[in-house]
Amino acid sequence: MDRISEPLAPMTLWSVHRLSFLEALLGAAGDPGPSGHRGEKGDPGPSGGRGGKGAGGRDGKDGLMGEPGMAGLTGCKGDDGDNGDFGRTGLPGTPGVRGERGLRGPPGLRGVQGEKGDAGPFGAEGHEGLAGDIGSVGLGGVSGLKGHKGEPGQSGLEGVKGSQGPQGSPGEPGAPGVRGEDGSKGLGEPGYSGFQGYPGLRGPPGVKGIRGLPGLKGESGLSGDPGNDNDQPGSVGLTGPKGYPGLPGETGFPGPHGLAEPNECEIVEILKKFCSCCEHECSPVKLLFILDSSESVGRYNFALEKEFIIHVINKITKFGNNKNEHGSRVGIVQYSHEGTQELVSMDDPKITTLSELKSAVKNMRWIAGGTYTGEALDFARKAFGNSQLSRKVAIVLTDGRSDTRDTKPLSSLCTVPNIRVVGIGIGDIFRRPPYFTMLQEITCMNTPTPGLYLKITDHSQLLEETFFNNVTSYVCQDKNHQHQTCQADFKAATDIVFMLDGSSGVGLNNFKKSRDFVANMASRLLSSKARSLLRVSVIQYGASQQHRVEVPFTNNVDDAVTRLNAVSFMDSSTDLPAALGFLSSVVQKEWRPSVSRRVVAFTDGRTVSTSRGNLPRAAEAVKAQGTVMFALTVGDTFDETGVCQLVSGKADSFDYNFVNSHIHQVAQYSDLTKWSVMQSLAKKLSSLI
Asked: Which CATH code for domain 487-689?
């Protein structure tokens, strides 16, 4: 006890109580002595350092309960003790605050099914139930889709080389490629021929060799100086020995297939080209140009119009220093808005030569105003005056559009005796096509003496050789070749279908030329004297499901040309049998009953290989409906068998006289603008009725 109480002096009261507590826990303390007097409270000693943990003592006897000490500091949380026994049920406490919702408890055991109660409200969706027991193996399923191709394996050993197989059949020839654009003409001038070299010194004669083979013919030597005149003829020389025959030449390559012999229309065109009246000078004619100088023409196009006029003047007339000599007379009227007509003519006293006339044309200025075409034509009618020439021709260059404020009729020139009017419809700078109704009225198409109108897309075509020859040939028509005829004479009602080839082998440029050809053919046919008997339709064909009717049957020129101008190129493959099936099923419904039926197909005779064998049967089905097929081919690379099957409806054993009469062949696409090509096709369509 002395050992324990010895350090009490410096201890704090808290330390005393703590020590008592330890003694109670550790035991080994003696019986308590009598209580001593309470000493005075000592001063608190300094805080001692924390001692090390003592060794556990033996359990002592329970001591008397001391007085409760002061509340100590909160100690560290000890380990959880064992659960004690259930205490007695306490009194019900006051209701506590509602706590947060606890977690969902595990499902209880399934109870006995109770009686069916009333239907309750729809509950919330339950949680996913536990997985059931694994069922028995089911039947085999349907085979799945083929998997992705595996990685290639390693190359195997090289096998034994097999025997050579039989030679395969040759493949079908490919479609001809699109013809490229012509290159521009090269620059530069040909060089001069070089001087002949001086002869060398004569060498010594060599040993006479064996007779050589005949040499090549040498170049022509220079002309010698003229000798002295000798009136006495020389003696006749001895006949020389016969020369050795030359070596036979190598066999040449076969030449290309020639075109068919020229038909009557082509002969007429050839005669026109070589006749003196068209090559040098026409028979006397009063020629008047009516020149559109409105704003829609444009300055550059106006210059092309003047150049075209000068080219025509150069070809059809001779005009010497004496302008009173008998010959052609030329005048030019340019016009724009009201009261702006300007006349340049040989009748002008200031113009005495052909060069002065052409200079006056070149100096004409572009007016760039409105378009009073009717007023200009009335002015031109008066300009013809009292001409003594029996042949009069007027050439009108316009886009066919006239100002609505112009009160003069467009048919003013139709009242001039012995006149032929040529209307050239040209697309303007806004790329609008010519207006055909006005062109028909200008060219007197509804009179007993109809003229001619031509359509071009832009002014640059005025200077193309084929177009230029068509115009000058018409101007130079006279009585020299009246015995040569090439007229299309339709005497019965006829429906005509043009089939445009929209395959990629044709190409966009050649397709446009084919489309323009059909537009010109429709204009000629529906503007002729037989226009009341004719109807025209146009379809475009390509792959098996790409055929379409571009122009339904019509006898109206404006309707046909307007629709054709809007046709776009398919750029597809070629299925000719399917196109004939489309013709039989769709177009067949639109034929007029009991009329002649004509079909003109642009084709090279080729079709996709999968339908090649169906061509004769499809052509025979069209022929059985009373339709006559014509094939229009371009160039010499067409498939002859395919073309023969198309027009005859037979697989072989063709009647070539019949085939030749139903094939219209041209050398190149640019020939489609020739008068003879259009006129001879029209004659074929009418002669077989």
From this structure: 3.40.50.410
What's the pTM value of the predicted model, to 2 decimals? Answer: 0.43
Q: Which of 53-62, 118-127, 580-589 has the highest mean predicted lDDT (pLDDT)?
A: 580-589
| β-bridge mates for residue 455, sequence order | 425
CB 577 within 8 A of CB 571: no
Backbone angles phi, psi at 382, to 5 degrees: -70, -30
Q: Structural domain boundaries of the chain?
A: 282-484, 487-689
DSSP-derived letter for residue 413 is G
Q: What's the pLDDT band for 615 if we cut at 50, 70, 90?
A: very high
Q: Provide mean pLDDT across the span 93-98.
A: 77
Phi, psi at residue 523, to the nearest 5°? -65, -45
Indicate the DSSP class of residue 518: H
Tokens matching residue 652:
């072989």
Dihedral pair phi/psi, residue 397, rounded to 5° = -105, 115
The answer for residues whose C-beta is within 8 angstroms of residue 386's C-beta and 6 or more apart is none
Type of residue numbered 671 = D
554 with 536: CB under 8 angstroms? yes
Nearest one of 604, 602, 612, 610 to 651, comparing CA atoms:
612
Q: How far apart are CA 1 and CA 269, in angstroms?
A: 157
pLDDT band for position 321 (50/70/90)? very low
| Cα separation, 504 vs 484, whole angstroms | 40
Structure tokens at 102: 């606890």
Query: What are residue 107's phi and psi, to 5 degrees?
Result: -65, 140
What backbone torsions phi and psi does residue 498 show, to the nearest 5 degrees?
-105, 130
DSSP letters, 209-264, are -PPPPPPPPPPPPPPPPP-----SPPPPPPPPPPPPPPPPPPPPPPPPPPPPPP-H
Residue 332: both structure tokens together = 């030019």
Q: Who's near 429: CB < 8 A, 6+ residues apart?
A: 296, 297, 298, 301
Encoded tokens for 350: 């200031």
SS3 474: helix
- 303, with CB counted inside 10 A (0-12, 13-18, 19+), is middle
Instruction: Judge whether residue 267 has pLDDT over 60.
Output: no
pLDDT at 226: 64
Question: What distance in Å separates the CA atoms of residue 495 and residue 422, rounded to the nearest whole number?
Answer: 28
- The letter for the amino acid at 665 is Q
At 272, the pLDDT band (50, 70, 90 cuts) reads very low
- Angle subtended by helix axes 675-687 and 508-527, to nearest 10: 60
428 Cβ contact partners less than 8 Å away, ≥ 6 residues apart: 296, 297, 298, 399, 401
In one-letter notation, the amino acid at residue 60 is G
Q: Please, what is the end-to-end C-alpha distance for the chain in angstroms?
A: 155
* 438 contacts 402 by C-beta, under 8 angstroms: yes
**573 CB-near residues (< 8 Å, 6+ apart):** 503, 504, 542, 543, 608
Q: How far is it, in rounded angstroms, from Cα 34 to Cα 36?
A: 6
Q: Does an H or E element contain 665, and which? A: strand 663-666
Q: Does domain 282-484 have CATH number 3.40.50.410?
A: yes
Rounded CA separation 131/151 (Å): 40
Domain 282-484 and domain 487-689, same fold? Reply is yes
Counting Cα atoms < 13 Å in the Cβ hemisphere of 610 gives: 6
- d(CA 366, CA 108) in angstroms, rounded, equals 107
Sign of CA dihedral 323, 326, 327, 332: positive
Distance of alpha carbon 550 from alpha carbon 568, whole angstroms: 9
What are the b/e assignments for 66-96, b being 16+ CB within 10 Å?
eeeeeeeeeeeeeeeeeeeeeeeeeeeeeee
